[in-house]
Input
Amino acid sequence: MTTTTTEATAAKAAAGHTGPSVPLVRVEGLRVSFPGAPRPAVDGVSLAVGAGECVALVGESGSGKSVTARSLIGLAGARARVSARTLEVAGADTAGFGERQWRAVRGRRVAMVFQDALTALDPLRTVGAEIAEAARLGGTAGPDSEARVVELLTAVGVPEPEARRTQYPHQLSGGLRQRALIASALAADAPLLIADEPTTALDAIVQAQILALLGRLKDEGRGLLLVSHDLAVVAQLADRVLVLRRGEVVESGPAGRVLSAPEHPYTRMLLDAVPSGRPRARPAQAPPGAAEAADAEAADAGAPDAEEAAPVLTGRGLVKSFAPGGPRALDEVGFTLRAGEALGVVGESGSGKTTLARVAMGLSRPDAGEVLLHGRPWSALPERRRRAGRSAIQFVQQDPYASADPRFTVARIIGEALPGLRRAERARRCAELLDQVGLPAELLSRRPHQLSGGQRQRVAIARALACGPQVLVCDEPVSALDVSVQAQVLQLLDRLRRERGIALLFITHDLAVVRQVADRVLIMRGGSVVEEGGTERIFEAPAHPYTRALLDAVLRLPGTEGAGSTEGAGSTEGAGSTASTGSTEGPGGAHVADVTGRDAPEQDTEHAAGQDGEHVPKWET
Amino acid sequence: MSDRARLAPRRHVPPWARFVARRLAAGLVVVWGTLTVTFFALHLAPGDIVDGLIGPGAAATPALRGQVIAENGLDDPLLLQYGRQLAQLASGGLGWSYQLNEPIERLLGSQLGPTVELAVSALVTALVLAVLAAALTVGRGRTVRGAAGLAELLMVSMPSFWLGIILLTVFSYRLHALPSIGADGPAALVLPTLALALPLAGVLAQVIRQELETTDGRPFVLTARSRGLGATAVLLRHTLRHALLPLTTLSGFVLGSLFGGAVLVENIFTRPGLGRVLANAVGSRDLPVVSALVVISSAAFVVINTLVDVLHPLIDPRLREGGPA
Output
């Protein structure tokens, strides 16, 4: 493993792809273990990052990629045992480093950017204070650091830096927050930036902007170590890729080669699992109900066939705001969900899609308009009368760990939804439900923390199925899962829809996911539906500019967009963008220029999301 | 008044002021409820108020009894007496002490100072001790934390009167280092303060350490450390602020433990103060004094809790938008 990596690095250096002779960081045979763990978290990883170069560490959760990154600045954790044949930062051997020497490295030599700036910045301090702290520590600002903070915020493209400086992380939109976090990492002018899932918490459009920013920093000559589970993100920036699995490098090499011609089966599996944005494969024999929907999709939503299946859940003129006179989280939203149909609701955070889910579930009362279940009043009923009908409509939430009592066993989590059964009968039903979601009955005695993320989400689905629902409202059901697991859960949901005619109200920010699952799509923005239609029609010929912007922001792996339709969608906006996205060269100047060239409308989008975001999540949680 | 006239001023009231007004109105109900329960509980309790009023020394002749009853209106129906007390409170007066024969306002006015002095010094001491104990032991090895935990548990479990007696025995009677009674000068404040502060510090230290440990695992701490911030700086600039947040929620508990503790500590150390006044008043069934103290302490709870709710958004910016809901 190690030798291949080193060889690859050497070969690369020999080929003259990497610039300088002294890498910013060089590690060989890195091994990190934690007491009590059966095997080391990182085992024999070797890598080097030079100036102006981006190396990506790729892997699923638990693959050791974050631990590797943190070991490079001596922050693997107090209990971690770190050893390596070589671990050099800026040419200095770190073997005998104590806390004091490490502190001199952090921020000045190697700076880090973490996933979610909402939690990665101190919520009780202004972003200006955070950036100033970093600048003072790095010695790039005196006691009066205001000017330096403004300079840094300007450098990362934050508009109105004077005003933003005095704001708190929760007052900024996701994109501005992430920019502020990057500004704090740049404060001490470190030549190497480690970015640990820097765009994972962001919406597609904002993600594209942040990646462009990181690309620009790379072009300016900074080294970039990118840690990500998302191969599409990696494809944007990385020159070289290391694929990690259980702490070991299974494959490494130039990004173009690894991503287009992977050698290791695990890399292939990761690549295959990336939601490709390809339409879902239609089964030959579709049950009644689904067949019409499938046909309808092939034509369009407005096709007459679609009218035949009875609507299960209907929303009409839904309005909801959380403060009197405040912004509307839902503004005249209507939808129709038929038996055996999957309706995708797509939008950025703050677009009102989660509010729509809660209103549809009857968990939140709309200010105006109503939701009908089987044509009968639903949202208008008092809760006491609604309770009887609740089994018909079930909820699958984003975080399956948070949505189940951590002290309950799987049997109890599912059994809760099966009242009035004898013990033996209940156990039998639980096992049956687990089987339906593709889990073995042994898991019945486990507790949530003993399950993997995918298993937890399957348990959550099994619990929803226990009630015999006709509708599943899924709110970002795969967003918290690894890509390989994501694909499995999506297949499960699709199978339930086909085999049992369960209607899915599928809420997501991920266009690639929605394309795989949904028959029809609602595009939401700022509480309103901006476009609605059959999935293929939306993807092939988006009518609304916002839909086009969303589709453009979707990152694709090189080679996956050759098949006609997607290319068409991309080229409607700008051929330059699509071409560079698809090119195996990685992002060159053309791509960056293209994205920044369109900064104005995108900034606007970010603002809109931010404004709603300030109100919506606060009240909803 | 027309609807319009009633609604008009509301529009100009800022949300926080409306919030405070609502809370204080609710607080008034709390004070009234406490007063009512105290009033009836005291009247239903066994024992004769008249005997208490006359005192053990005097001969309780029927004539004297009759005079006392008439003077204080004690033969009126209970509800009438209750109403009279409410009316008196509403007019702003606390009443007249049976026992000491002076207006309660004057009585409390002279005793309030020493108690506030004791409570404030105990609160500051407890906070300092708790923060130090938590900050010095957080994230340390098992032995250090085990020892700290044991010490805190000991402090929490030790009743303040017992702790007071131990302190007296050691520092006053044995070492003659500090005075055992009275409220003259700072030296006299040391032992009562410790007796009151140590149990409180035990609880607070546990809460703060728990919070520090939770906060230490939060991503922004990792960010701060990745900038090159040292452990002490992380504590001072980041985590301690987070750890002190939940203390505001505990302020009701803190106030209660200070006032309750003062009753015991003031008696042990023979210090003047509200605690002693309360203990004496309960002992001699001096109902107006007991009622007045109940009203005052419940009002203090209401004020402190309202203050905390108003201050919370100032400390935590995330709570600012939309106001306290």
